[in-house]
Amino acid sequence: MKILLTGSTGYIGRRLLPELVQGGHYVVCPVRDTRRFDFEDFDQDFLKSVEVVECDFLDPESLNQLPKDLDAVYYLIHSLTSNSKEFSHLEATTAQNFVSYIDQTSANQIIYLGGIANDADLSEHLSSRQNVEEILKKAKAKLTVLRSAIIIGSGGASFEIIRDLVEKLPIMIAPKWLNSKCQPIGIYNVLEYLIGVLGNASSFDGTFDIGGKDILTYKQMLMTFASVRGLKRYILTVPVLTIKLSSLWLYLVTSTSYRLARNLVESMKNEVIVRNNTIDEVVSIKKLSYKESLERTFLRINQKQVVSSWKDSFSDRDFNYTFLHQLEAPKFGCFLDIRTYDFERNPNEVFDNVWTIGGEKGWYYGNLLWRMRGFLDKLVGGVGLRRGRRSPNDLKGGDALDFWRVLYANKEERRLLLFAEMKLPGDAWLEFKIKTEEHKHVLVQTATFRPLGVWGRLYWFMVLPFHGFIFRNMAKNLISYKED
After folding, report:
1. Could you tell me which of 129, 360, 181 has the C-alpha nearest to residue 255?
2. How far apart are CA 202 and CA 101, in angstroms?
3. Cα(478)–Cα(483) distance, rounded to whole angstroms?
4. pLDDT tens for each residue of the chain, 484 residues long
5. How many angstroms separate the CA atoms of 145 and 166, rounded?
6. Count of alpha carbons within 13 Å of 165, Cβ hemisphere only?
7. Which pTM does this prediction carry?
8. Starting at the edge strand that comes first in sequence, how are the strands of the sheet with 440-451 ordered?
9. In this structure, is the dihedral angle defined by the CA atoms of residues 198, 107, 145 and 114, taken in order, positive or negative?
10. Residue 389 forms beta bridges with which residues?
């Protein structure tokens, strides 16, 4: 079959793509920026079955270059992290543009992954998902809707938030919504359902709830997670935490953004449990328990096999993803901090240190100061330092790296360019590259800041004294650091 897979660089789509190719299908992947596609992760035989097309479903004209000879389509586009006042509008507009395009194709099935929405009083997030369903139903192709409960998998938003809470807080004071029930499902089972309904006539024009084996409260999920990790945790639920306070608490403690925290907290008032089991008559799978899903997830993490993460998503429209086109930091109107150091060590070893910077390894000098900067960023609504990195030993353009975004990462060229996503009165870049000059190797580390108005200039001179020892020692340690 020839399949259009939207969201192929996202959390679900990135994992679904290999399953489809291995199933013998030809897959078309529409992406907003081709550099976000993991070409280097696949061999040439695999890529013969994949077509990557650059377009944006918010721009109808860009969809003209997509093929029309399709058999089926996966709709995996969400805008959860966008501003709560606009994400429903974005999702509706995207879905309408999608339907207009699909009606021009030969596709006979649309597969949509949404969220379980069985209550009458739904959150904005779940209401938006239902609205997308209604828009997709207007397409000529048959619609298959899979409504999922919380998805558990390495790199997933729900999993990472639970992980942050349990591993960082021995005692939690949590809102009463922690007693709401849900039916978490492992990413492995989600993929089985997504594959199982493909071309399955029994699923046409059907809406199905999908969940795992267990029905648990959010509190039970946290305590089970703690048990799997061998941790003793205490949770107190109180009725006085408003949605705003609960969202702020979740935002400050975990690696989530405030917008995502708000959307998630509002959704917790709704029970997300399977009330319609008809999916079992259409797709027969072995459902994993919550504990089994956790154990499978940590196995992948321990094997460093996290292939996708919600933190790398560009669904937040406040971030201008066209920065990925900027492979050079600007020079005009900018302040520069350039550090150059000669060294005799193997340059590949030095760049290995650059390649693994951030995350759990830290920034090679002044990690406490970096964490303080991340904490201050969270206080003013920034992303903070807790996002870490998708993989401890792999980088690609578009990856989140603590409060930076990877613009360019090329190990062969020995060059890494980062763009700051922290709250700043201006724009900032940090670049590392290794040059070979006259039989010697040189590490060039450049911090670039383009100030915005007077406050931007004041900010630069305020932090300049810290640059003197932080950036200097960071560069020196990148050269000298060796694994134990």
Report:
1. 360
2. 25
3. 11
4. 999 999 888 888 988 999 999 999 999 999 988 777 777 778 889 899 999 999 999 899 999 999 999 999 999 987 654 454 577 788 889 999 999 999 999 999 999 998 887 766 666 767 778 888 999 999 999 999 999 888 888 767 777 778 877 877 888 877 777 788 899 999 999 999 999 999 999 999 999 999 999 999 988 998 999 998 888 988 888 776 666 666 666 666 666 666 666 666 666 666 788 988 899 999 999 999 999 999 888 876 655 444 444 444 544 444 444 444 456 677 777 889 999 999 989 999 999 999 999 988 899 998 898 888 888 887 777 777 767 788 888 888 778 888 888 888 888 899 999 988 888 888 889 999 999 877 789 999 999 998 887 888 899 999 888 888 899 999 999 999 988 6
5. 33
6. 26
7. 0.69
8. 335-343, 440-451, 426-437, 415-420, 404-410, 400-401
9. positive
10. 401
Of 32, 30, 52, the residue nearest 41 (C-alpha): 52
Residues 6+ apart with CB under 8 A from 3: 20, 25, 26, 27, 28, 70, 71, 72, 73, 74, 198
Residue indicated by tokens 């608490």: 249
Tokens 């270059």 belong to: 65
For the chain, the 3-state helix, strand and coil shares in percent, each to the nearest 5, are 40, 25, 40
- Alpha-carbon distance of 66 to 60, in angstroms, equals 11
Residue length, the chain? Answer: 484
